[in-house]
Amino acid sequence: MPQIELVRVSGDYGFEAKDEYGHSIKMDSSPESGGQNYGVRPMQMLLMGLGGCSAIDVISILKKQRQEVLDYSMKINGDREAGVEPSLWQNITIEFHLKGNIDEDKAKRAVELSLHKYCSVAATLEKAGAEISWKVFIHPAV
């Protein structure tokens, strides 16, 4: 079972979390709520996890389809519920930017498979009520 260790290292809300392999990430609250901007907000970390999970899936699927992915990036935006606690992610939009000799239909299918079949983070967010929408942009190799 994965284990995470979290310790306070900066001010009241600045934390560092480590996994069992020693990988670490810094977290903090916003300055408006007493934080010092030491690290990523925990809710934004969920969006980062979504990006990482889906990116691994998409690249893996495209490699199996012999698509040449020279570069890859994503832009993820989210809106949270207003005026409620806890304030969950409500709408998430993702732009997938892929560069290379890539068939657009294969890229779209890879994203669809990731978000609707393989990515556990996407499934977790959707079960919590988030709607995830996405677009794929293919940038040709120069």
The arrangement of helices and strands along the chain is: EEEHEEHHE
Kindly provide the radius of gyration, computed on alpha-carbon positions and rounded to a whole number of angstroms: 17 Å
Oligomer: single chain
What do the pLDDT scores average to? 96
Q: Which structural category fits the helices and strands? A: alpha+beta
Please state how the strands of the largest beta sheet are arranged side by side. 1-2-3
User: How large is the count of helical segments?
Assistant: 3
Distance between termini? 45 Å
Q: Please give the number of β-strands.
A: 6
Percent of residues in β-strands: 35-45%
List the uncertain runs. none
Shape: globular
Helical amount:
25-40%
Structural features, described:
The chain is α+β, with helices and mostly antiparallel strands. Helix content is 32%, strand content 37%. The protein contains three helices and six strands. The chain has helices spanning 42-64, 104-118, 120-127; strands spanning 4-10, 14-19, 24-27, 68-80, 89-101, 131-139. The chain has a three-stranded antiparallel sheet with strand order 1-2-3, with no helix packed on it. A three-stranded mixed sheet has the order 4-5-6. Helix 1 (42-64) packs across helix 2 (104-118). It is globular and about 50 Å long.
